[in-house]
Amino acid sequence: MSGLALNKISKTFGKNKVLDNISLELDGDELLVLLGPSGCGKSTLLRIIAGLEEADEGEVFIADKRVDKLRPRDRKVALVFQNYSLYPHMTVERNLAFPLKVAGMDKSEIKKRTSSVAEMLGLAERLDDKPAQLSGGQRQRVALGRAIVKKPSIFLLDEPLSNLDADLRVRMRQEIVKIQKELKVAMVHVTHDQEEALSMGDRIALLHEGRLQQLGTPEELYKKPVNLFTAEFVGQPKINIIEANLEKGMLFPFGIGWTKNKKITDGGLGEGYVSGKVLLGLRPESIELAGDGEFPATVQSCEYMGDGYTARLEFKEHVLCVSNVRSPLTVGQTVKFSFPLNELLFFDSNTGERVNL
Hints:
Layout: E1 2-13, E2 16-27, E3 31-35, H1 42-50, E4 57-62, E5 65-66, E6 77-81, H2 92-102, H3 107-120, H4 136-148, E7 154-158, H5 166-183, E8 186-191, H6 194-200, E9 203-208, E10 211-216, H7 218-223, H8 228-233, E11 240-247, E12 250-252, E13 256-257, E14 264-265, E15 268-269, E16 276-282, E17 288-289, E18 295-304, E19 309-315, E20 318-325, E21 334-338, E22 345-347, E23 354-355
C-alpha cells in the first residue's frame, strides 16, 4: 500500500515559487527524509501534506486516498514539530491522552493506548510529571507519543531534533528510526542536516529552490548524484570540484589517458567535438596519500578531526581536500597522492548535470 503520493505539487507565495511540480511516492512502511537548505520549500511541502497549506496545483494521496480537499483532521496524519507543542499545565499522561479525548474515544481505550505508548517510549515512570520536569529528549518523546497514540496513516516530522544538543540528537534519531520500524507506518522527516538524513532515511528527497533534485537511497545520493548541487550538498567534507579538460584522449590537469564515450564542446556537452571543458568531482576520502603516489602536491593546511586528519593540498592551480589522513602533515610539505579512476564524477560545465564519461 502506498503511504503517500504527491502528484505535481506547486505553490507560490506572491512572486516566489516555493514548490515547482513536485511528484514522489513512498511505501506505507517507509521513512522518507525531505532534505535541503533553508528556504528550499521542504516545510511548506510538509504543511501541504498535512493540510495546513493549500497547494496551487497538484494532488495529495495518503494511504491511496486523495486528501488534498479534506480538512487536516480528516487526513489521518500526525504532526511533530521542533518546539514540542506540549501543554505545560498537563501531566505527561494527559498530554498523551489529549488528542484521543478530543476525538471522543472511550476512557478505557485512552488509558490502554497511553500506557502502551508510554511503555514503548520509556515514559512509564514519568506519567505524573509535567513538561517542565522533563529533559529536552523526554519532552520530544512525549511529542512523538502524542502522535503515536492517534495511530495515523502517516507521521510528519518538521525538524523535530533541531532544539536538542548534538549527543541527544544522535540518540533521538536512532529512537525515531526504531519506533518507525516497529510501527511500520509511513513517515516524512524534514531536516536541513545531511548527517541526519543519511543516517535515518530509507530514501531521501533532496529539494533546492522548490524543485526536487534527486529522490533515492542515501547511498545513491552520495555515490551517484544526478547533478552538481546534489554532489556538493551531500557529503562532509564537501566534494572536490575541479575545472578539467579533455584533450586528445588526455584528462587534464592530471595528464592521464582517458577513453571517452561522450562528445564534449568547449562550453559543455554537445555534438561534434572530442575535447572540451568538464567539471570533475572527487570525494575527499577517495584521495590516498602515499610515497609512491602519482601526483605531487603541497600541503596548505592540516586539521585534527579526532579520528584522523583532514588536509588541504595545492595541486597546480587547484586546492584539494583530503580526509582520513592518518598522520599529521606540515604546512608547505610536499606529498604525493593518487585516487581510483572509477571514483571520478563528471558534470556538464553548463547545466551541472552528471554525465557518464
